[in-house]
Amino acid sequence: MHHAKLPGNGHSGNLGAEINEEHRMLRQKLSAVAELCPQAMAGQDCKSCSVHVPKHCCRVVSDLSEDLMSYMVSHFRNEERMMRETGLFQRARESCERHMQDHGDMSEAALQLVTHLDECKLSTQLAGLTSFLERWMSDHITQHDRPMLDMLDES
């Protein structure tokens, strides 16, 4: 990955732009999950689906879940690397530790969602996955990522 310099601190940078791009990709993943199953978005179960067969959906959801978990691990690793490389972890240790704890909590919650796929409950599980991604977009980014990026801008 290419990194420019953060203004004023001389540390590896343009990390804020990189993180924001990853957040944009996350919004795309959320849209992909939401479009995958209209039944899930309408609160219906798989029995009312006339579009796909459960085995097909299970395979697609499994692939999507695998992609999401891989993305999540990579994104969290990038943020935590940025905290260390820029010295933010040393300057705002408590905030960074809470941020990293939230990464761990979210990873555990996502793992629980994606490891218990069931052909008969896919629409419910997709609704749960969508809800998880929406919480990531609203809560985690608002409470942790934006403040982290703001602290970097101030340094």
Short description:
The chain has 155 residues and is mainly α. 75% of the residues lie in helices and 3% in strands.
CATH domain class: Mainly Alpha
Radius of gyration: 18 Å
Tell me the major beta sheet: 2 strands, antiparallel
Strand order of the largest sheet: 1-2
Number of domains: 1
Number of helical segments with 4 or more residues = 6
3D shape? elongated
Give the SSE map.
Elements (H helix, E strand, L loop, with lengths): L3 E2 L6 E2 L1 H22 L1 H4 L12 H32 L2 H4 L1 H22 L7 H33 L1
Helix pairs in contact: 1-3, 1-6, 3-5, 3-6, 5-6
Task: Please explain how this structure is put together.
Helices cover 75% and strands 3% of the residues. It has helices at 15-36, 38-41, 54-85, 88-91, 93-114, 122-154, and strands spanning 4-5, 12-13. A two-stranded antiparallel sheet has the order 1-2. Helix 1 packs antiparallel against helix 3, helix 3 runs parallel beside helix 6 and helix 5 runs antiparallel to helix 6 (122-154).
